[in-house]
Structures are given as C-alpha cells and as structure tokens.
Amino acid sequence: MQSEERWKSIKVLAKHFLKTHLNRIDIWILASACLLVFSIYALNTIRTIHKDMFIISDGIYIMPTFLITCLLSMFISLLSIMKVSKDFDSRIYETYLYGPVDDLCYLTSVVITYTLINFGITFVLPLVWLFLLYFLTGIPVTGIAIMELLLGMSVVETMFLLGLVFVAKSEKERNSLWIVLILQFFLIGIIFAHMVVSTYLIPLKRTDIDVFKFFRDVFSFLFTSSRYISPYTSMFLIQATGQSGSRMGLSFLGILMIVDIVLFILARKLLSRKLV
Amino acid sequence: MKKIYIICYIGLILLASLFGEETEYDHVYALNYYNGVSYNSTIIPPHTKQMYLLADSMNALVFRETSLYYWSLTSEFKADWATRNSVVSGVLAVKDSKGIVQRIDGQPYVIQYDMRDMANTIGIYWGSNAFSQYEYFTRMQQAYNNAVHEYNLALQTYNNKVNALLQQSMEFGLSEEQLTAFPEVPEPPANFSLVSTEINLGYPIQVPEGKYEMWFEDIDQEQIRDSKKSLVAFSATTESGGYKVFEENRWTVPVDFPDSRKTLFTHQASTLYFQPYRYKQFEKYAYETLVNPQRTTVKDQMHIWIPLAKELEKKKLSILNHEITISGYKVIQTAGSKLGYTILPLPEGDPDISFTGMKLDFQALSDVKRFTLGNESSVVILKDYRGLSVLVSLVSFFPLLLFLIMKMRRKDIRHK
Predict the structure, then answer these.
(1) Helices marked H in chain A — which ranges?
(2) Cα atoms in the 13 Å half-sphere on the side-chain side of B110
(3) Are B274 and B355 in contact (CB under 8 A)?
(4) B392 to each of A35, A72, A138, A208, how far by Cα in Å?
(5) What value of ipTM does the predicted structure carry?
(6) Chain B: residue nearest A19 by CA?
(7) Distance from the A110 Cα atom to the nearest Cα atom in chain B, whole angstroms
(8) B49 interaction partners in chain A (CB closer than 8 Å)
(9) pTM to 2 decimals?
(10) Residues A99-122, buried b or exposed e (16+ Cβ, 10 A)?
(11) Mind telling me how many Å the CA of B148 is from chain A's nearest CA?
(12) Any idea what DSSP says for residue A122?
C-alpha cells in the first residue's frame, strides 16, 4: 500500500474513531472529573492562603497532576482495550480490511485517536484551566507546571500503549483488560501502600518484635524497585523531589518517548503475527 | 510439726533465692550527636541495628548499662537512668568498608557554646582541652557572679545616694552643683550567655561519608552483647540561603523558606517578616534517623531542609524598586485580659529587640505581583479570590456543558 493512501486511510479511520468517542458522554465526564480534581486542589490552596496568610509550596499542581495521571491512564487503557476487543469480537475489524486498511493503519488510527484524547484531557484542558486561574487569582503558569502536565500525559500514553501490547498478545482480547487493570492497580497501589505503611504502621504496644517490620520492608522494597519499572513511581518521585523541571524530568520524558516507540513497534508486530 | 513447717518455709525461701532471676540490665549507646546546628542526645537501644551520623562531624558516644522501658506515647524505648546508669569500660571499634578497624579509647569531653550565636560558637572539646575549657567556663561564670555582685553593690550605693538627695531636696532644696553631680545609674553586666556541659566520659567518633560497622569491646577485647551496629555517615546534599518567614499575627510560628525551587503564595492584605538563614538539605530518612535512631518508618527518596544559622551579612532585600532593610522589632503584649500583641520597630542594637527581620507589607508594595529571592524561589502575591470558588467549580463542568450543546445542536439538525 502506498504511503499516501495509507496516511489517508489512517486519517479517515482516526477521525471516525474520534467522532464515535466524542459522541459518548464518558470522555466528557472524564474531562470534567480531571478539571474538578484541579479545582478542588486549587480552591483548597487558595483558602489555606487566605486563612494562614501564606503558604510555601514545592508546586501546588503536583498532587492533582499525579491523580489525574492515575485516573486517565486507567480509563484510556480500558477504553482503548474495549474498543479493540469490540472491533475484533464483533468482526468490525474484518470489514475495515475490505477497504484500504491494514493492521498498521488500524493500530496507528487507534493510537492517534487515544493520543489525541489523552492530549486534550491531560494537557490542553488543564493548561487552559491553569491560564484561567492565573487571570482570576494570579497563580502563575510556570514551566514546571507545564512540564508536570507533559509528564502526566507521557505516563498515560505509555500505559495506554502497554495495554495495546497486551491486547495484541492475548488470545482473548477481553482477558488483557483484566491483566492491564490488575497491573495498573498494583503499580499505583504500591505508591499508596508505601505512603500508608510509612506513615501509620508504627508499633502501638510494648513488644520487642516489631510486627509491622515485614510490611515496611516488603513495601519499601517494592516501592524502591518499582522506581525502575513503573512510570507511576518514577513520576511520583520526580514530582515529590521537585525535579519536574530539571534534567531528571526531561530525561524521564525522553525515556518514556523511547518506550512508547518500542511498545508501538511491539504491538504492531504482535498484532500482525496474531492476524496471520 | 511446727519445726518442720519452719524448715520447709526456710527451704523454699532458699530455693527461690537460688533459682530466682537476677535483674538483667540493658546495654545501650548514649549518643551526643551533632545535627548541623547543635548537639543533642539520644540512645540507641539493643534492637536498633542501624544508626546515622553526620559525616566529618565530631560526636560523642558512650556505652552504658541501664534499664530500658517502653514508652507507648512515642512508641520508643527510654532509659531509666535513675535505676541504673553505669559506663561500661572498654574500647569502641569502628570498621570501614575496606575492613580497616579503628579502635577508639574513651576520653573526657565537654560541649560549649555561646547562646547569642550558637551556630558559630558551638564546640566539643576532648581530653586536656575539655578540662581547660571547663575551667574557662567556671572562670567566666565566677567573673559574671562577681560582676553581678558588684552591680548590686553599685545599685545599692546609687539608691542610697538618690534617697539621700531626695531627703535633702525635701528638707532644704538642691543646689545647682548638687543637681549636676546627680549619681549615674550603674550599668548591669551583660547577660551570661556561655553554656557548658559537665565533663563527661565519651568515645569520640568522627568519620567520613560511608558505611561502617561498629561494636564495643570489653577490657578483654571481647565484643559485648548487643553492641554491634551498622553505622552510616551522611552529608548534606546541597546548601542554600533562604528565609524563615512568619506572619504578623503568628510571630512565634516561623516557616522555613529555603531559596530552592519553592514558591511562597500570599495575598495583598498580609504582612510578612523575613529572617535570612542558611539552609542545608539532607536525605530525609537519614536525618530523621539521626535525630531518632528508633524511628520505624520506611526509607524513601525525599529530602529535608534544615535551618543552620542566621545569615548576618544579609541586610536588605531588593524587590523591583523597593528596598527592604533588616531591622529590630519588639513584641508588646496587650495589657489586660484581652489576648494579643503589637509589634513595634526598634533601632538595631537595642537590647529590648524580640526579633530582627525584614518587614514586607504587601499593601504598601501594591505594584509588586511576583518577585524572586535571587536563586530559584519566588514569592507570588495573589489577587482577591472572593466569589471564585463557585466560578472555578463551575468551569470544571464546562466539558459536560460542551457535550450537551453538541448533542442539542445535532438533535436540531436531525429535526430540520
């Protein structure tokens, strides 16, 4: 297939997928939920400033960015997996193949569709919202805030592409839904479990044996080691140590981009192998 | 029969004393550690296997026998020094990562500092220096006592002279000569600000950054039970200037504001005081374990900023075309039953100064919206936010509104 023709098919297919999604309310609810997370955090910060007269912060958008990243990576992965599995189960995919569409066109269209949705909800909408808040309150839109949104968007993209790899690999597409769900719950859970264990599990009664030591050691190990495999932990640490705008943040962004390319190639290979 | 009972009773007592448990005491390390600003003390109980120290700083360690008890309010073991407090004699052994063992003998030591400038005067003195420093302290203390005594005598003489003059003035009036020769009020001696510990026995430990093993050997060079610990010496990750900031109505609650990628958000109606300080950043887990070796939380990658000392050379802060200079302030409590205080400016060097700092009244700095502190930190002055909560919350539902409009328009098109 000629590249021009292929590109045309991708554009048509992506437009169709995007239109289908925009006609459904779930994406819009998701967008509102993300803005609501930002609003709640910003209003809470502004109230604290007016109550205590001042606050000193590493970045007031750290926590909302991380939360919407967790929320969106789950939803976008689920939506994309459900879309692909539906196309395969109801044989819609086969009808595409009658036209000028091959597996690469299909996969690229899916990636473009969800990347655009991700870009819109994780980056554009919050950025517009940040500028609006700047005009209303004077909270500046800093380079670090923009970088944090970019980091969030990249993490969502990587997790979504990982989901596609699982879909392409699994025999039954819906099974991959559970695998991705469990994996994401596990990776996000490590961070929250680490936060809870490190804060609350302290011995309460006289005992020479520290009964919580096991949990602390396990979660500490999982948290430390997941830094190298989980984009959530890496993002959390980069944000918490205030390195979003530093070289570390940029390197993380670069690594995620490389991982994205690798995952896309892998998903394409697995899909074409599956269709043969 | 009675005799048999008595014999049995005595026998039982003897048996109980034979097999009765002997009171066992615990071995702990009592540590006087340097935290970057001052010396603090803590204990390292037997179940704590790892301890942290600041690299290249001098610390005093001593191995003691005591009775430990659990204090559930803080979830930690504490030493009952009144029941038992005896120094275990021996040698402290420290093995570095290359396997080289350094054996350290105990020495007498004292810790001294001047309260007016603790950060720059604090010192730990060992051996003969400890004795000479302690002697210097007692000499200074004696000199202060003498000065106070002399001041009291001078004050007494002054009071007597004034009383005599008053008496004379009431009876005969005062001549011009007598008025000019009115006695001068005696000057009280400057407050005694030198602080010293007693001379104690300790084992000096000062190691470069790294990981070590440490244990205590008795006089027969045998390792004592529960004495083996792993030791981590850590350094500051970075250093920066900064400010302690507090609001006019909460002058006793300053907040650390190191000049490093932090933003202070405030609003136009606030008045803040900035006190220049030097800060050091440490790995949070290491620093908190140094302060409390019994800490049971998990290791994470976070960092902590510690204020070290006032930056005396920083005298002004330039904000756009404004220049805020440092000055002294006195806090005066409101008289009567009503709570409250007022802060009055005082000239620099005045002995009544409660604190020094730079006063930033943002109402007076109305043209300033944002400024940086020189490095990476900035101060942002927010606009009035009244009525914003509703507006900002409503904006969040804008995507849903957009969806509804889109759907309604489609419906209209279909109907047409």
Answers:
(1) 3-22, 25-52, 62-89, 92-98, 103-118, 125-137, 143-169, 173-200, 213-226, 231-240, 247-275
(2) 19
(3) no
(4) 9, 21, 14, 53
(5) 0.83
(6) B406
(7) 22
(8) none
(9) 0.80
(10) eebbbebbbbbbbbbbbebbebbb
(11) 45
(12) I
Residue B209 has what pLDDT? 95
User: Residue with structure tokens 């328009």?
Assistant: B409
- A112-116 long-range contacts, CB within 8 A, separation 24+: A112/A10, A112/A14, A113/A14, A113/A17, A113/A18, A113/A21, A114/A76, A114/A79, A114/A80, A114/A160, A115/A157, A115/A160, A116/A14, A116/A18
> How do strand B91-95 and strand B101-104 relate by DSSP bridges?
antiparallel
Q: What is the distance between the alpha carbons of residues A200 and A11, in angstroms, rounded to a whole number?
A: 52
Sorted by where each begins, the domain ranges of chain A are 3-274
Kindly report the average pLDDT of chain A as a whole number. Answer: 86
Q: What are phi and psi of B206, to 5 degrees?
A: -140, 110
Q: Of A70, A66, A87, A71, which Cα lies nearest the Cα of A27?
A: A71
B213 burial level (CB within 10 Å; 0-12, 13-18, 19+):
middle
Kindly report the nearest CA distance between residue A41 and chain B, in angstroms.
11
State yes or no: pLDDT of B2 exceeds 90: no
Res. B388 pLDDT band, cuts 50 70 90: confident
The 3-state DSSP class for residue A217 equals: helix
User: Binning pLDDT at 50, 70 and 90, where does residue B374 land?
Assistant: confident
**Statement: residue A10 has pLDDT above 90:** no
A258 part of contact set with chain B, CB < 8 Å: no
Subunit contact A53:B247, Cβ cutoff 8 A: yes
Pairing of the two strands B316-319 and B322-325:
antiparallel
Choose the weakest-confidence range: B226-235, B239-248, B365-374: B365-374
* Closest A-chain CA to B362: A53
- Chain centroid offset of residue A126 CA: 14
Predicted local distance difference test score (pLDDT) of residue A266: 94
pLDDT at B20 (0 to 100): 52
Nearest to B306 by CA among B122, B34, B30, B74: B34
Q: For A243-257, write each residue's pLDDT tens digit.
A: 777 788 899 999 999
**Is the Cβ of A213 closer than 8 Å to some Cβ of chain B?**
yes
In this complex, do A138 and B400 lie within 8 Å of one another by their Cβ atoms? no
Q: List the one residue out of B199, B400, B157 whose CA is nearest residue A24.
A: B400
- Select from A211, A166, A219 the least CA-distant residue to A195: A219
Is B296 in Cβ contact with A28 (below 8 Å)?
Answer: no
CB contact under 8 A, B382 and A137: yes
Q: Which residues of A touch B70 (CB under 8 A)?
A: 206
For position A276, what pLDDT does the model report? Answer: 65
Looking at the complex, report in whole angstroms how far the Cα of residue B250 sits from the nearest Cα belonging to chain A: 9
